[in-house]
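Schema walkthrough. Field components (list of strings):
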Amino acid sequence: MKVLFCSSEVAEYAKTGGLADVSSALPQELIRQGIDCRVVMPLYKSIREKGIPMKHVSDISFLSGHGISSGRVFAYEHTYFIENNTYFGRDGLYSYAGKDYPDNLERFAFYSRACIEMLSLLGPFDLVHCNDWQSALIPAYIKALGIDSLATLFTIHNLAYQGIFNSSAWPILLLPEEFLRPDYMEFFGNINVLKGGIAFSDMINTVSPSYALEIQTPQFGAGLDGLLKSVSHKLTGIINGIDTAVWNPLQDRLIAQPYSCDDMSGKMQCKKDLQKRFSLDQGDHPVFGMIGRLVEQKGIDMVVDVIPELAKTGSQIVILGNGHPRHEKELLKMSSLYPGQLGIHIGFDEGLAHIIEAGSDFFLMPSAFEPCGLNQMISMRYGTIPIVTSVGGLKDTVEALGEGDNPCGLRVSSPNKDAMLSSVLQAHRIFTQEKQLVISMRNNAMKKNVGWEISAQEYMHLYQKIKRF
Ligand code: ADP
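Field assembly_structure (string):
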């Protein structure tokens, strides 16, 4: 089977979040299991600067809303890069200095249409696998161009980002006028690109079974719950894995000392290293780590709210993230209030993410919604106990204390400050008073299967199901 996997970010090359991790690890696992999987992404300026020895494969040109659009295709291993410097030769993937690029529709329409060119350049393919709004126009182009032999799967990694643009931009897409109807891509007078992915794909999936159900309700549906309910016959959920080669405490060169669940002494060294890097007091105080986009979704407000009381217990908190300027400013302001106890790093730093995962005792992830979430799985792999709400992938991947025989996390019963405080105080209590319980929870966490093998097989079954011939 031959699959074209289209994603706007792939971890080794360009990353803003979990989509990049999935777009790196899943194709690799599919290839390992026998699928001929080719990945296509834009050639951003930051990728060019990495000096990857990619090869020029072809020039492409096609009819677009602007007349003729053209670009070049480069390849490295199984990944293909679409070059167009007007669209991608700039800083950032989707935004700069906290502001989305105003021509994002045009940029990702170009990328999506270029993916169609890849079908004939590298094909024939059995299936195109699209991911999130940035590649959600591909099924619409396939439909418009009548490429009937090709099956399409659309994966929603986060329904909160739908790619909504003013309908005056419609002509640049060069799609049939009737596609801008409420049952296709029209959304309150605007263009909704993600809606096109839902409408025109043979099958849709989200990145956890719970999220697939949640998005069919008004609370989590982000305005599309009705539509998603109406297509529930072609909507399913497959849990993400993590790349267990990248995230492996026994072979991680980015952390102070490797360790495994058979010998956890390295984790103590990692904790000391983390404390030193963030100028925290040395000693066996519980360390709570948090890494992620600083947006409301991730529950950052709740974490900020409980810092004063958590600090009173002698606990330490380390936060790495970037995102909304309001949260960034607030955290920076707080960092001077709790010297020796609170460490803040604003930015995107993959090396530091490894150091925090390895050096923390607990990991904070009280998301308001979570399509899957990778950080809780990475934490478990590093023997760091996740503290999570009961939504989406957090519900599906973390067995919390009191919920089963092999607890490896703590639950925040609902996304509010009181529940959050009660969970972090529980964490502090078990850390200081129930060492054996902490050890067994760490063990359970590290033994959990968080790899891609099983989920990749589920994707293969889905591919088989929708493949035409
Ligand atoms: P989301 O995709 O919603 O951002 P996930 O938990 O699914 O959240 O995945 C986030 C990924 O991005 C993880 O690999 C995480 O470590 C990484 N990440 C997020 N923010 C940062 C940051 N500021 N620095 C380094 N890595 C980050």
